[in-house]
Amino acid sequence: MISKDGQILNLLGLAMRAGKLVLGSDPTLTAIRGNKVQMAFFPSDGGQSQSKKFADKSSFYNVTLIQDYTKRQLTDAIGVNRSVFAIADRGFSRKIKQLISEKERN
């Protein structure tokens, strides 16, 4: 049985292979501003000022911001050295939200 975190990280890998991720800080912020994404990821060990910028933008544009994983976990999950990215696909976003709420219930 894979943990919820494992399942979420696996889904990120699938989203990457499906070409549904927006990679990097600037493209991710642009996508958030343009309402092109529903969910963004920022590393739990990322910089404080960047973290605040993403938190503010995400809440303003009603984007779910996930900060539960380290740079290493995110990089390993998508297979690219990027720890800031967003998901430009409703299906992937919905499934990840579902897994997160299941994780929080347990």
Task: Tell me the strand order in the biggest sheet.
Answer: 1-4-2-3
User: What is the string of SSEs from the N terminus onward?
Assistant: HEHEHEHEH
Helix content: 55-70%
Major sheet, described briefly?
4 strands, mixed
Number of strands: 4
Which structural class should the secondary elements be placed in?
alpha+beta
Percentage of residues in DSSP E strands: 5-15%
Poorly predicted segments: none
**Count of discrete alpha- or pi-helical segments spanning 4 or more residues:** 5
Query: In one word, what is the shape?
Result: globular
- Rg for CA atoms: 13 Å
List the helices and strands and how they pair.
Elements: H1 4-17, E1 21-23, H2 25-33, E2 39-41, H3 48-60, E3 64-66, H4 71-78, E4 85-87, H5 90-105
Parallel strand pairs: 2-3
Antiparallel strand pairs: 1-4, 2-4
Helix pairs in contact: 1-4, 1-5
Give a verbal description of the structure.
By secondary structure, the protein is α+β, with helices and mostly antiparallel strands. It is built from five helices and four strands; from the N terminus they run H-E-H-E-H-E-H-E-H. It is globular. The two termini are 15 Å apart. This is Ribosomal L7Ae/L30e/S12e/Gadd45 family protein.
Précis, in short:
This protein has 106 residues and is of the alpha+beta class. The chain has five helices and four strands, in the order H-E-H-E-H-E-H-E-H. Helix 3 links the parallel strand 2 and strand 3 (64-66).
Which keywords apply here?
alpha+beta, 4 strands, 57% helix
